[in-house]
Amino acid sequence: MYHSIIYIVLGIFDAFAMLLMILKLFMLPVYEYRNKILIFVFIVAIFSYFMRVVFEMAAFDLPIQYVLFVIFLRVFVKIKLHIASFIAGAGISAYATLQVCLYYIFDWTNVVDVGILRENSGMYLYMLQITAIVVAYLLTYLLFRQSKGFTFILVPPHDFFASENYLSRRNVVLIFSSIISLITISITILLLYSGKPLNILLASIVSLAISAYFSNWSDKDDIRKAITAYRNRNKNG
Q1: Which domain holds residue 147?
Q2: How far apart are CA 164 and CA 154, in angstroms?
Q3: CB 132 within 8 Å of CB 17
Q4: Segment 147-156 mean pLDDT
Q5: Which residues contact 89 (CB under 8 A, 6 or more apart)?
């Protein structure tokens, strides 16, 4: 019972850390959705507990969590589905990269070994989780304070009635990156339980790098469009 409570409590903070990474990487609001977020992260923590501990179906935990995050962003934050899929994948990949990097730091100091990756409880696992959560909070706070992040995504709620060309270059890029993220997230648990943290790190970095590259490209594309529109107005004037 004691370990179950700790698992759920840490799961709440863990889900909140992931959601912060998702939103603040793209400079999207958090406070406006605070009540919905609190309910959502509690649901995610309970879901994760049942998947990993009760049903012992850990392989399905993170992929389904990804789907839950996408649904939350689409239904409650009002972000278009393909964009929600993209930012959820980017944020979860960023958090996974952070966690594995911290694992290697702990491993380097001989605090933990690879066996900890297959556990659901234990003091050293809790230490690793808490460290990852705190670092994620600090990073997202710095992004907020420094007004850093990608800006090409419109602040929600999005207009779902406006026509959308899903074959446009930007949307194709977003969908492609979302698929890469989903594949990465799906194999993460399998690599985790096979004791291959380096493969997890490499997969997460590749997925995050692809998302970051396309996000940076989209930001620059917005700037180019704004400059072109400004020049056209001046010509017409």
Answers
A1: 2-236
A2: 14
A3: yes
A4: 90
A5: 66, 177, 178, 180, 181, 182, 184, 185, 207, 211
pLDDT band at 184; cut points 50, 70, 90 = confident
What region, left, alpha or beta, does residue 9 occupy, with left being phi > 0 and alpha being psi -120 to 50 degrees?
alpha
* Sign of the Cα pseudo-torsion (74, 13, 28, 181, in order): negative
Residues near 34 by beta carbon (within 8 Å), at least 6 away in sequence: none
Q: Which residue has the tokens 């993220």?
A: 181
Sorted by sequence, the CB contacts under 8 Å of residue 57 that are 6+ apart come out as 51
Q: pLDDT tier at 219 (50, 70, 90 boundaries)?
A: low
Of 154, 28, 159, 2, whose CA–CA distance to 91 is shortest? 28
- The tally of domains found in the chain comes to 1
| 201-219 exposure pattern, b = at least 16 Cβ within 10 A, e = fewer | bebbbebbebbbebbeebe
- Residue 11 contacts by C-beta under 8 Å, 6 or more apart in sequence? 44, 45, 46, 48, 49
Q: Which residues contact 144 (CB under 8 A, 6 or more apart)?
A: 24
Q: How many Å apart are CA 37 and CA 19, to the nearest integer?
A: 8
pTM for the predicted model, two decimal places: 0.88
pLDDT, tens digit (0-9, with 9 covering 90-100), for 103-142: 889 888 877 776 777 777 888 889 999 999 999 999 999 9
CA–CA separation, 104 vs 199, rounded Å?
12
Cα angle vertex 214, ends 157, 23, to 5°?
A: 35
